Amino acid sequence: MDRAQLPLNALRAFEAAARHLNFTRAATELCVSQGAVSHQVAQLEQRLGTLLFRRLPRGLALTDEGQALVPVVAEAFDRMGATLDRFADGRMREALTLGVVGTFANGWLLDRVPDFTRLHPHIDLRIMTNNNRVDLAGEGLDYAIRFGDGAWHGTQADPIMTAPLTPLCAPETARRIASDPAALAHETLLRSYRADEWPRWFAAAGLPCPPLRGPMFDSSILMVAAAMAGHGVALAPALMFERELRSERLVRPFAQDIPAGSYWLTRLMSRQETLAMRQFRAWLMAAAGMDAGEPEAQAPPAALTDQA
Question: Going by C-beta distance under 8 Å and a sequence separation of 6 or more, which residues neighbour residue 180?
């Protein structure tokens, strides 16, 4: 069949009739007459040299040939529709898929996404959250925002911001502590899977670390939620919980914090940057108050490479 002569109207009539198994309902959907749909399907059958429907007294039934053709035609129309939907203001929308560690997504990025979409309406931003365990290639990600030291094999990493850790707790817990770090020994200390964090904080405060028996979390969001519920004291990046601190649902009882790592924008070195990627990177670095050209790495200790 000559592709330049593809009978698109006939294919659309066939696809609609195959879904409804009725020419009249297909015609209503397509805003044409029942006779037009029947005629277009008959033309397609003649062109293909085979029947696609069995005409029954009360509707239609697909032949084996019709059943084989339906998914191919439906997929083709779906793909055309998805491509046409990507056009906005005379430009094709370009998809950009971003993997983001959940704490950064919830605590910083989401409030700023409307600004990005306003400035770049032609970019279809798709956000997938994770706990810092990322497979850029396997998950089809253009970029991933991760927490750590920036040393990921085969990856270009640009620092976004540092995220020191500090104790965070509910107001009732803060009143009980009364600004005395030693009082933490009598509280439940909520933990991440990085075992050195509380010992490092107590060392920075000039105190011995008490036994750590609190629940362990793989997400700072969940750990801080537990702290706000009064279940203990979390050690987390205060910068990512500014909303909760402003609303006084969460309290930072001490000024002391410890370096723990940075948030980084990462991509595979083998991944060529698209225009949409460059525009997102420039926007992100500007929003984070950094130079979008060649930011200097501010890497903390190399062992600190997990999620915050």
Answer: none
According to the model, what pLDDT value does residue 133 have? 83
pLDDT tens digits along 161-216: 999 999 999 999 999 998 899 999 999 999 998 889 999 999 999 999 999 988 99
Confidence of residue 303 (pLDDT cuts 50, 70, 90): very low
**94-101 vs 143-148, strand pairing mode:** parallel
143 neighbors 277 (Cβ within 8 angstroms): yes
Strands 59-62 and 53-56, how do they pair?
Answer: antiparallel
Quote the distance between the C-alpha of residue 92 and its chain's center: 21
Helix residue ranges, H only, the chain: 8-20, 23-30, 34-48, 64-85, 102-104, 113-119, 171-177, 197-204, 220-228, 242-246, 275-287
Rounded CA-CA distance 234/225 in Å is 9
Ordered structural domains, the chain, with CATH: 3-85 (1.10.10.10), 93-163+261-287 (3.40.190.10), 165-246 (3.40.190.10)
Among the listed residues 289, 303, 277, 279, the one whose alpha carbon sits nearest the alpha carbon of residue 162: 289
pLDDT at 91: 63
| Tokens matching residue 235 | 């050690």
Q: HSE on the CB side for 308, CA within 13 Å?
A: 31
Strand partners, 264: 146, 159
pLDDT (mean) for 285-300: 57
Q: What is the dihedral of CA 104, 191, 222, 283, to 10 degrees?
A: 0
CA torsion angle 217 218 220 221 (round to 10): -90
Report phi then psi at 159, rounded to 5: -70, 135
If we measure between CA atoms, which residue out of 183, 200, 182 comes closest to residue 191? 200
Task: For residue 87, name the pLDDT band (cuts at 50, 70, 90).
Answer: low
Q: Is the pTM of this model over 0.70?
A: no
